Amino acid sequence: MPPIARGFQGRRPADPSRLPPGQYETPDFPVLAVGPTPGLLGGHSRTRVYGRLDCPVALSLLRRGFVPRHRVFFADEETAIAAGYRPCGACMRAEYRAWKSS
Known about the structure:
Elements: E1 24-25, E2 32-33, E3 41-44, E4 49-52, H1 56-63, E5 71-74, H2 77-82, E6 86-87, H3 93-101
Parallel strand pairs: 4-6
Antiparallel strand pairs: 1-2, 3-4, 3-5
């Protein structure tokens, strides 16, 4: 079997219209970042959830081999909320309860 599937033509070029507002794709690793350095909070651009970088749910997914393809970083909570993300129910319980009740 060939190492690359027939018809594979490389990675598609990044489409800037598919990135969340105020974010860009970094060329050195498939990670989205808000600024020049990753922030204190991480998120998932498809589920629109943000949480701490040491979130037990996120770490268990990484341990099981899930590729952080849709990961984004935020400098603070205000930035994440402004981008339309909600808090994680596992690592940010108080913030999640406040979001859920609003």
